[in-house]
Records
---
Amino acid sequence: MKLALLTYNMAAEWDLDTLLDKCVELGFEGVEFRTDRDHAHGVEVGISEAQIDTIKSKCEDAGVAIAGLSSGQAFDHVDLDALEASVHHTRALLDLCAALDAGGVKVFGNNLHVDEGVPAEQTIEQIGQALSDLGEYAEGLGVQVRFEMHGDFTSAEDCNTIMDLAGADESDGICLIYNCNPQDVDESGSVAGSYRAVAERVCHVHMHDLADPEFPYLELLTMLAEDGFDGWCSAELQDSPDRERVLRFYVALWDAYTKLAGA
């Protein structure tokens, strides 16, 4: 398992040089760039080949891996033109991902639209079809489209249905991001049921506050270690006026938990 810093909220205002300096200083092995939000790092669809080469060389020189791209693209749109635009933009993100050797692009389903008269099954099928098309495209590029368990799509049952519809078991281009949602925790305080139900499809993990007593991060990391998970766990954190202190504490907790987990 490897620890990356996701630039959503925390680190959004750091330019690339500052971001890489902080990753090295604070102990993050990788960075997951949040796109579609004009963050200071500048990693966005439309940058030039020269800019891509500069980003790659700076990351390589710093010894910080690119753990992935995190997008705001969702495939639940009722408006089919909006759906087509999101799929089109995701293809461009997958192209950028491949050019950066970034591994994969995070997307999500986001919302059900039952209150707008759209059956849940219809939205789930639509998301599965979009992922099927994108997974084939991603596989051809040697990268992944990574579906985050997020919004109205946090249940293992729904996410497995979407993965089935997308043909995830027959493709190296589609997988799940386990998102450490509060909904994953059962009455006993465990996430074993939630995680085990999707474990074979998980390629990436988004973690939040490791010090949160309501989420059993040590249990999750122990299960990941037992499964031989060797992917990225990205820290997705709210911003803080004392970023360095918070991130240093985060890395210390990660080191302690992974040691206890036997990772």
---
Amino acid sequence: MYGGPFGLMQKRLMEIVIVLPALAFVGALSGCRDGAPAGTSPAASRPVHYACAAHPLVVSREDGACGECGAALVAQKSVGTYLCVDHFESAGVLPGACGKCGKLLVAIPNVNMWKCTRHPEVMLDGGSACPVCESSLVEVMVGKVWVCTRSLEETLGKEGASGLTALRLQGNGLGFNTEELGFGEGDCGKCGRELLEVTVQVPHGDHNPRHGGVFRMAPDNWHHLEVVAPREGLLRVYFFDNYTRPLEASGFSARYLRATFDEKDGFVDGAEAFELKPSSAAGCLEAAVPDFSFPLHLVIKVVLGGKEERFDFTLRKLGSAAAAPSQPRRLEDSLVIPASAAGIVSELSSRDERVQVLLREQDYKRLFLPAFEAKALALALEKKMAPGEPADRKRGLGRAVKEVVRGAWLLDHFGDQGDRTEVLQQYDVFSSGVKALKALYPAPSDGD
């Protein structure tokens, strides 16, 4: 592991993907267990908390005055985006306490961005198509926080840190000390620098269907369902958590009833129930639907937490017949890490060659594909260093891995901007690290 500030950053920022739990526009919530201690009921997780408008970190269970400025505290919104200052993965859509440390959650502002549902690392301010797979982007809600660039500069360099607009994480905390983090504009409480505004994804910010069906949130505000008819006569149900990450459907018990819709009484349940069973297409439950026609009114009953919950759905069109991956993955998740250090370096070298090809073709939007995989390979190589290795060799490895990780960040950042000058400069950082790692672990000769 690295020492100093970079060690802190690598621990939390090594996953280059901006996916903290995303919260958002959830309308009419009946309670949320996000961020609440285990075993807390939805009703118990809805206390009224008070905060200072000028000092967002000042949150109290009691009405009163701000200890910083003396202004009267105001009740937090009943629904919003709330994060723990020390554990960003502990988040909620309602005022509450962190399930890890008990601190009261702090409200943060929200903004809209555009995301690829197949490649969560693609998060753009605008646009219509994913640069990786060309599928349509969907609008999601993300949160805004303010961070001190001092720690970032060790990883990204001064220019990279100052130009950063999004922290790319995967469900982990930021890795900053509380004093280096703000929930509003201002200066760092530790060094006095002006804080940098960045976006993070936060729970429930992405309620876009993944299969062209109808998406619903369960009463527990954690489970989510998508119901879709991929073709005539077939019904499928997919399950997701509060981050819209797929859940294995075989662990759920569900059935459906055909229904009719009455303008006065609403849904009228049919008499016969049909069991939904695990599908050969992994990741969902399915059942046949006789006498299929649109609009298709259905009552889905699912056992969640030992209680059967009811969901009313009306399907008006066919969804996607193709089964999407059972888990949206970061690009590096599918990467096979070789067992030997020499094998890792060989794979790392091939990613470097791919980056060079994209540079020649000026295809900067796709640089993050091989760059992120190179980052994962470099970090895996670091773990191969034996404890008894000489100190200078350990330092050399640390510097080289740091250059690859930093270079991957910056190739992605400036590649998104299409800034050729910066991209070429940051490739020098990236390639320097690759060359150093190849020198530390030279390829075996044919006679070896």
---
Amino acid sequence: MAKSELTIGLVEDQALIRAGIISLLELHTDFTVVWQAADGEQALELMAGQQSVDIIISDIRMPRMGGIEFVQQLRAAGNNTPVLMLTTFDEHDLFLRALRAGANGFLLKDVSLEKLHSGVAKVAAGGFLAEPELLQAEALQRIDDQQLSRPLFADQLSDKELQILRYITAGFSNKEIAEAVHLSEGTVKNRISTILQKMDARDRTQAVIKALRWGLLN
């Protein structure tokens, strides 16, 4: 397999939509859908006997096992494959639950082809992605306060760390951040680890939620 190829697993319950998404994804010459599943349960079964992929794209709402439980099961098993969720404007509660479960990105189902391709590449590279409509302040207020308790060190982020945090929120990968702030990729990775520690965030996704909720990026 060519090194430039990006491998994808797809989880979507409607066969026609699933076929359409695969067709759209594979219009990108470097994207290959390795496996497809009708729900989270089938996806977990398939993954047990399939090669690992660079990214999983999953619908949020599905019968038997939806996207949220699917991500929970993945993370509980120690599988950190990036998961990009497909959602709609009116699924704020599901969006927040998926964030807490460990999803890495979110795209609206009516997304353009260009944005689909760029979003998949972004999340596969380690970035975070969410439509502005899903990050509305009133939606973020629904996250329980316990999860967002503010540690003392959150106010001790340096200017450079805040700059990196802004790039994380914008969905930049480590490599893209390194180029933007003129640091090595290894240094950026270390800085991000420090940011997560100071914010008491388990991952980039939770750091983004906390940064937006606390107004760190204003």
